[in-house]
Amino acid sequence: MELQSNPQLLWFIGVYALIMVGLGFYMSKKISSSKDFILAGKSLGPFVLMGTLLATWTGSGSISGGETSVAYSFGIIPSFMLMVPTVIGILVLYVAAPKIRAFGKYTISGILEEKYGVTARNLASIIVLLAYVGIVSYQLKGFGFILNLTTGMSVEIGTIIAAVLIIFLAMIGGLKSVSQTDALSGFLMVGGLLITVPTIFAIAGGWDSIVENVPDSHLTATGGLTTIQLMGYLLPSLFLLLGDQNMYQRLASSKGDASAKKAQIGWLVIMIIISPSISLIAFASRSLFPDIEPGMALMATTLALPLWIGGILLAAAAAFIITTGNSYLLSAATNLTYDIYGKYINRNASDKKQLRMTKVFIVILGALAYLLIRFFPTVLEVQMYAYTVYGAGITPAVLAVFFWKRVNASGGISSMITGVVTTLVWEIVLNRPFELNSAVISVPAAFIVLIVVTLATQKEKM
């Protein structure tokens, strides 16, 4: 089957975009302080919190990278495995959520500073910016894919349009607005995926027909990857989720521990439904469209579906991408405001000044995200880079704060430096030897250094 753009699908995206812009304007009227902008006034109930956790996590990383690209490139079983890190991560956060709320910090940097000192805060701010700008960048390209499919415009122009829309929506209402659009997007996506799975399988001729049209390796346990290569795709998402500042900020924004727990249980249940659904749709797409860019696999099916089903799925995918981009852009901007601007440039800045600067930083970081995506050929590549920079540089040190009382500043800071440097050297300087994602090297290295340095420095003090 050949891809042919269908401009009628653009109506579904356009209507949803207008709804999000309208909701953003409405919620912006309720913002009176930086706390409202960044933590939604700590007012999120379980329903909205569940939706924003879901939509923030399941963005272009799943729709254009993650499950989609892996199912198309390597097969159904490796793609199903990508659900495992998410389930583990949600369960760990469920245990840690009360402790996260107790810290009451705007950023991960603030949590690390309390345990490890100012140096850790500064390092964390840099790592968050390196990772989150990367994550925003592939949301832009994912939306560019959508506009390419629907209108035939180039992915490059679509990416520019995405940058403008995502920056605008993040800047206008902060988390108070983003959380509401997230919830709406999340539940639309669940409905769209559940309708699409049986429909696209019927169009593709059923399971037997799909299997006949995909490579034999796509039905094996590893899809032609070695075990260690497969781990390179599983580890980054796990360690990003375990230390993701976005998730911490959302859990801190809930009305209380009870709301946070209910929301996380709902998030877990829905992820168990939608992650395999994305994998199945992309796997069917491999049969229908054997020669397309892997990141377009899920969205390409909208052209084979009946118009109303394809339109709902495409609008939902666009919404997920936009809300994820908003969330990570907003989160990175808070680091610049509170950990750099507020600490070193203007320590006496008023609340209104901090709010204005957060909006300025959203624009600056959004522009940087657009520039970054031009240097990575695929969404999956920049996704693995961004996840690993964060997962190796931040997560071991953060988890130790909550689960290992003996950890000290020397161990935490050494771990952060090790994680980032190892990732950058492996990905950029060495250009990924043996086609291994850096997570299989940098994450273990960061944990080992954390433990060894902590124990060694404690011994010296005795």
Describe the protein's architecture and organization:
The protein is mainly α. The protein has a single domain (about 15-375), classed as Sodium/glucose cotransporter (Up-down Bundle). The chain is built from 21 helices and no strands. It has helices spanning about 10-30, 35-40, 45-55, 60-65, 65-75, 75-80, 85-105, 110-115, 120-150, 155-205, 205-210, 225-245, 245-250, 255-290, 295-300, 305-345, 350-375, 380-395, 395-405, 410-430, 440-460. Helix 9 packs antiparallel against helix 16 and helix 10 (about 155-205) crosses helix 17 (about 350-375). It is globular and about 65 Å long.
Give the SSE map.
Layout: H1 10-28, H2 34-39, H3 46-57, H4 60-63, H5 66-73, H6 76-81, H7 83-103, H8 108-116, H9 118-151, H10 155-203, H11 206-212, H12 227-243, H13 245-252, H14 257-288, H15 297-300, H16 307-345, H17 351-373, H18 379-393, H19 395-403, H20 409-429, H21 439-461
Helix pairs in contact: 1-10, 1-16, 3-10, 3-13, 3-14, 5-14, 7-12, 7-14, 8-9, 9-10, 9-16, 9-17, 9-18, 9-20, 10-14, 10-16, 10-17, 11-14, 12-18, 12-19, 16-17, 18-20, 18-21, 19-20, 20-21
